[in-house]
Design a protein that fits this description.
The structure holds three protein chains of three kinds.
Chain A (H helix, E strand, L loop, with lengths): L3 E5 H12 L3 E4 L7 H9 L1 H4 L3 E4 L3 H13 L4 E5 L1 H6 L1 H9 L4 E7 L15 H5 L10 E3 L4 H18 L2 E7 H5 L1 E5 L9 H7 L15 E2 L6 H21 L3 E4 L6 E4 L2 H16 L4 E6 L1 E3 L3 H8 L4 E6 L5 H8 L5 E6 L8 H11 L2
Parallel strand pairs in A: 2-3, 2-4, 4-5, 5-7, 6-7, 11-12, 11-14, 14-15
Antiparallel strand pairs in A: 1-8, 6-13, 10-12
Helix pairs in contact in A: 1-2, 1-8, 4-6, 12-15, 13-14
Chain B lengths: L31 H15 L5 E5 L7 H4 L3 E4 L5 H11 L4 E7 H7 L1 H10 L4 E6 L2 E2 L5 E2 L18 H4 L5 H6 L4 E8 L3 H19 L4 E7 L3 H4 L3 H15 L3 E5 L2 E2 L3
Parallel strand pairs in B: 1-2, 1-3, 3-4, 4-8, 7-8
Antiparallel strand pairs in B: 5-6, 7-9, 9-10
Helix pairs in contact in B: 1-8, 4-5
Chain C lengths: L1 E9 L4 H14 L3 E6 L9 E9 L11 E6 L2 H7 L3 E9 L14 E4 L2 H7 L6 H12 L5 H11 L8 H14 L1 E4 L2
Parallel strand pairs in C: 1-4, 4-5, 5-6
Antiparallel strand pairs in C: 1-3, 2-3, 6-7
Helix pairs in contact in C: 1-5, 3-4, 4-6
């Protein structure tokens, strides 16, 4: 029996955390994502699954609670919005360096600085290029609906553990605040101690009587050893790039122009391509679902087939650079974006497209 | 001639197995080694080596995990209480402690310290206070004494400009989430014995789930203070102890009357 | 079928919850729905609006510039959203407090004296349900049985005793809605 609900993106992610079997949530309130912790607290997750929920004193504390929790072998998650995610960057670098699986959700808002609380996509660079110090990558997934907001919370648990790597869900205030129909997945059990022991032998939950103690650290004072660790990380990232690229093609079969947009912007563009197709202009969309690893190959494969790419983002132009790199400048790549939390309308996107490719 | 003496029946002391065989990286005369040892001895005596998770700081003891033969996480600077909070909440039956210096606990990590204490996390916080930043080369710490020289207060700590030495231990004692607060030292055998008792009490407390047990160890830094080890210990007694008096401040949730 | 609706009025008029009940009714008949509120400081006492889309197909943009239907419940909303109704579309409004009535001649216009009716029923909080009833009379896009289910789903359990009162208000809205102009 399908379990259908009408939920906000933020609520759906919170419910998904309980259902996916996360062991702990640590967070600090910030608009437009405070419903995540509000929903969790109201649901009494400790009674439902034994999941710990704790309101930390700051985002800095939250991410370091994740570091502690993930290092001890538990599946942990936090959520925040842009300014809070900036505060977490140091911790994320440690987590990536120590190769700890966990989930960080960024419900983006307008920036820079305190900005505003309206939806934006201006944290793309921060999310996909590293964000904190050192050479590291997060696996970055971008939902475009409330359904995906729920599903990706579960996917993140799998991916983060598969690669011992932090995963970020990069969404925005609009998807967080809007309600849509969502089919909830069934309750998954939390990992047992036996499973943790088997799947995370590196975790610090007490030295085994018959084995070596475990150390979680990102420190290595010998340059050659640290370089070897970096090489290992880079090899892991190449594997992730090979295995985990996800994207959606919408009406691309006969397309002469391809829109590239993710998250809410991709939804707006779907309306735009309907309007353009009504005018007889053949357009399609490639929607990156994973922003890292970026779906370069599919974009490249269209480079010689279409007349141009049109990138739409809720920022001043960030992902467009990755699109340009992917198509190796073989075709014209144009960009349209709105910033500061202003949502582009399907009509203005159409006008901008027509201006670029007339 | 010594071989005749090396017999099991003559053995009076042995290094705890809960310390690794790795040579300590601390300066000769530094209190860290002793502080490490007494914690590890308590863990051995309580039989909780497999049940204990330590959290190491940033500072001289960043490499504490090299010497402690237990599961350890090395935290970002100042965040050890946040890590410990999560580990203890997610593994409520385990023993979790942080080991932090004065820069880590009382400067960059003040918020994490205060809030972990205020939530009454069932953890042990061991606070090593030597009044200076040792690892980075002798800069001023939040606990540097008035008029005390450091590389960033070369003419002495001017309290009107640089603030006053922070008594974190007295500060956290006021929080209802904190159950046991004591200030100890490890520079003489009698102090080591007392400090070890305090550590033992702190670990036993956390099993009772009564809140934070906070053990400050006033220690030396002969390198940072630029003194010979024996002089440093004397200077500590003459200058640090009057400002940071030794003894229990709060026991079983109640302030100790002095 | 795709119906794209904007509902706008004062914060506290039940604009968002009316949209939510409509959207939940759509979920109950297994349609695709989206409910996109204006959020933030403007919600606290000022104007509030919500875009509701109900469709048989996957919904593209949850935010729009043109709507099939605008349900406008104060003057500010009338000023802002009258122009956003697609030609041939529907505008439904409550004349209470309206000093500048709609001028468009290329759209169908209905009015419902919902505030007055809710006051008469001594249930001012059911104002939004009177409006919902009026709308569903004009465009029965969701079945009444599904509206009832939607009400149950979107109201917290402690408010379930108020469901019959809300259902009365919906029926009242159906009765009193008036055609102003048809295209």
């Amino acid at each position: 029996m399908k379990e259908l609900r009408l939920m906000k993106g933020n609520e759906a992610m919170a419910e998904a955390m309980i259902r996916a079997g996360y062991d702990g949530y640590f967070g600090y309130p910030i608009t437009p994502q405070s419903e995540v912790m509000e929903y969790l607290q109201a649901e009494r997750p400790m009674e439902r699954t034994g999941m710990v929920v704790l309101q930390a004193e700051s985002e800095v504390a939250s991410i370091n609670m994740l570091y502690g929790g993930a290092g001890s072998g538990k599946n942990v998650v936090t959520s925040s919005s842009s300014p809070g995610i900036s505060l977490m960057q140091e911790g994320l670098s440690y987590i990536a360096g120590a190769e700890l699986p966990c989930l960080v959700i960024n419900v983006q808002r307008g920036g820079p600085g305190l900005g505003d609380i309206q939806p934006a996509q201006a944290d793309y660079f921060q999310a996909v290029k590293g964000g904190g110090h050192g050479d590291y990558k997060l696996i970055v997934i971008a939902p475009a609906s409330v359904q995906e907001s729920s599903d990706f919370v579960k996917l993140a648990l799998e991916l983060s553990n598969k690669y011992r790597n932090p995963v970020m869900i990069l969404t925005d205030g609009a998807i967080g605040q809007m309600m849509e129909k969502v089919e909830l997945f069934p309750q998954q059990p939390r990992w047992t101690i036996e499973e943790i022991r088997e799947k995370k032998p590196w975790a610090t939950f007490g030295k085994p009587a018959d084995g070596e103690r475990r150390i979680i650290t990102s420190l290595d004072l010998l340059p050659e050893k640290l370089e070897a660790h970096n090489t290992h990380l880079q090899e892991k990232y190449r594997t992730i790039e090979k295995n985990e690229v996800r994207y959606e093609e919408i009406m691309c079969e006969d397309a002469e122009y391809i829109f590239v947009a993710y998250g809410l912007a991709s939804r707006i563009c779907q309306k735009t391509i309907q309007l353009l197709r009504e005018k007889g202009i053949k357009v399609g969309i490639i929607r990156p679902i994973t922003l890292y690893p970026f779906p370069k190959d599919i974009l490249k494969s269209y480079a010689s087939k279409v007349n141009g790419f049109f990138v739409v983002e809720m920022n001043a132009g960030q992902m467009v650079e990755d699109v340009q790199l992917a198509v190796e400048c073989k075709e014209k790549v144009s960009f349209y974006g709105r910033t500061g939390g202003v949502l582009p309308t399907p009509e203005e996107v159409m006008e901008a497209f027509e201006k670029s490719f007339k | 001639m010594y071989t005749e003496l090396i017999k099991p029946e003559n053995l009076v002391y042995t290094k705890t197995k809960v310390m690794t065989d790795k040579e300590l990286s601390y300066c000769p005369g530094c209190g860290h080694g002793t502080a490490h040892r007494i914690i590890m001895e308590v863990i051995e005596e309580m039989g909780i080596q497999g049940e204990t998770i330590g959290v190491a700081p940033v500072g001289c003891s960043v490499l504490a995990y090299e010497f402690m033969n237990i599961d350890v996480q090395q935290a970002a600077h100042g965040r050890a209480p946040a890590l410990a909070t999560a580990i203890k909440r997610l593994w409520p039956e385990k023993y979790v402690f942080t080991y932090q210096g004065d820069g880590d606990l009382a400067a960059i990590g003040t918020a994490e310290t205060i809030h972990a204490c205020n939530r009454g996390e069932n953890i042990v916080i061991v606070f090593i206070n030597n009044g200076i930043y040792g690892m980075t080369g002798g800069q001023m710490a939040p606990t540097t004494l008035p008029n005390m020289k450091s590389s960033t207060s070369p003419y002495g700590r001017d309290e009107t400009e640089m603030g006053h030495p922070l008594k974190m231990t007295e500060l956290v004692a006021n929080l209802p989430g904190v159950y046991y607060v004591t200030r100890q030292a490890v520079h003489k055998p009698s102090h080591v014995r007392k400090a070890k008792k305090a550590i033992r009490k702190a670990f036993e407390n956390t099993a009772k789930k009564t809140g934070v047990s906070f053990v400050e160890i006033v220690s030396n830094c002969n390198s940072g203070w630029k003194m010979r080890p024996t002089d440093a210990n004397q200077w500590m007694e003459d200058n640090m102890f009057p400002y940071y008096p030794l003894g229990d401040i709060k026991v079983d949730g109640l302030f100790v009357n002095k | 079928m795709t119906e794209e609706i904007i509902i706008a009025g004062f914060g506290g008029q039940g604009v968002l919850s009316m949209g939510k009940i409509l959207a939940y009714s759509g979920v109950m008949q297994e349609q695709e729905v989206s409910w996109m509120p204006s959020y933030g400081p403007e919600m606290r006492g000022g104007t509030a609006n919500v875009t509701v889309i109900i469709s048989d197909e996957r919904i593209s943009s949850p935010t729009l510039k043109k709507y099939d239907t605008a349900i406008l419940l104060n003057q500010q909303s009338m000023d802002k959203f009258e122009e956003t109704v697609k030609p041939g579309g529907l505008l439904l409004y409550d004349p209470n407090g309206i000093t500048r009535h709609p001028k468009r001649t290329d759209i169908t216009i209905y009015k419902v004296e919902a505030a007055a009716e809710a006051a008469k029923m001594r249930a001012p909080k059911t104002f939004n349900m009177v409006v919902l009833g009026a709308y569903l009379k004009i465009k029965p896009i969701v079945k009444m049985e599904n509206v009832n289910k939607g009400l149950k789903k979107s109201l917290p359990e402690r408010h379930h005793h108020m469901i019959p009162m809300n259902e009365d208000a919906i029926r009242q809205g159906e009765k009193i809605v008036e055609l102003v102009q048809e295209v």
